[in-house]
Amino acid sequence: MIGLVEGWSSLALDHLPVGLLIIDREGFIRGINQVLTGLIGLKRDQVTGLPLEEIIGAGQTGSNKLLQTLASGREFQHLMPEDVVPGISSNDYSTSTHCVRDKSELIMGAMALFTPLGRQQELEKAVIKAEKLALLGQLATEMVHEIRNPLTTINGFLQLLQRDLKGTPGEEYINLMLTEMVRVNGLIKQFLQLSRPGYSKRKLYSLNELMNDIFLLVESEALHRKLDIRLVTAPDIPPILGDNEQLKQAFLNIIKNAFDALSVGGKLCMQTLWNNHEKFIQTIITDTGVGMDEQTIANMLHPFFTTKESGTGLGMLISKKIIDNHGGQINIQSEPGKGTTVTVLLPVVY
Ligand SMILES: Nc1ncnc2c1ncn2[C@@H]1O[C@H](COP(=O)(O)OP(=O)(O)OP(=O)(O)O)[C@@H](O)[C@H]1O
Ligand SMILES: [Mg+2]
What we know:
Heat Shock Protein 90, binds adenosine-5'-triphosphate, Beta-Lactamase, binds magnesium ion, 5-stranded antiparallel sheet, alpha+beta, 3 domains, 12 strands, 5-stranded mixed sheet
């Protein structure tokens, strides 16, 4: 910097990560740092001592914000760089103007700062996007909630019509509508589950007991489908802290997928594992079903991704969200034609 600052201060100002331009009371350039000379493509001694007007062009003095600051004392934020000097991209820099005052607060000059947007802008954009998404999510949840009431009415009347139209050609259409209604209701239920906040009823639970309950729930369905289902629990497992109902839901979604993948004679094994050195209890759910290719594995946690005619594509996402909320992890291994292993890790309480 020449004129206003010397020595160490000059060195420091040259290495500031912002461009700096200082004009005196008459509008002559008295200081410009290295960042700014680099940006406007002029050497320091080419511009120092020149009136700002010579760089911006005589026609621009009225609208120049740095000259306005000098004249009125009004400071500006979030300007385009070209509001002060030409030739700097507004995508990369944001500009502000400030008064330079003496001890008695009289305006001695004015300065402009050119701050790189880069990372800060990225962060600001990310925050805005996250806020927008959160708002959209909230609106969607409220809307889906509201859709439920008219659907219940439609469902009720469809059931009445089904009775009236029994044996007529219209019966088939009503049945089709009711089937679709079941699908829409399932979708709504899953969606609302997904948008529910984290777990609320935290208690100490035995994972083995939870798996026993789940086994009893699915056993008859497995027998009906002629599947070979078994549960192997490790002894003396320490308790986990969590929401029993939500964890049950998470495991049921995984087991339901295994059921869907299995055909008659297929095997489904649920197993809990634990050893003293580990901080996590493992629950391994293995099926000998159709398995998944790499692309399906990569997509299976995306919302609404499904390969099933009547799937909503939210089951695994809900399971993952619940397990994440419990500080756990979910790992999936699968091979087409051989089957799938889903491993859920949940932290234990000592
Ligand atoms: N055990 C499994 N074996 C084979 N494919 C599976 C298995 N688990 C998940 N998938 C695949 O991942 C996809 C997404 O599963 P997800 O549970 O999220 O949705 P869905 O089962 O299709 O529908 P729903 O929301 O009703 O559960 C499934 O459509 C299926 O292609
Ligand atoms: Mg599923």
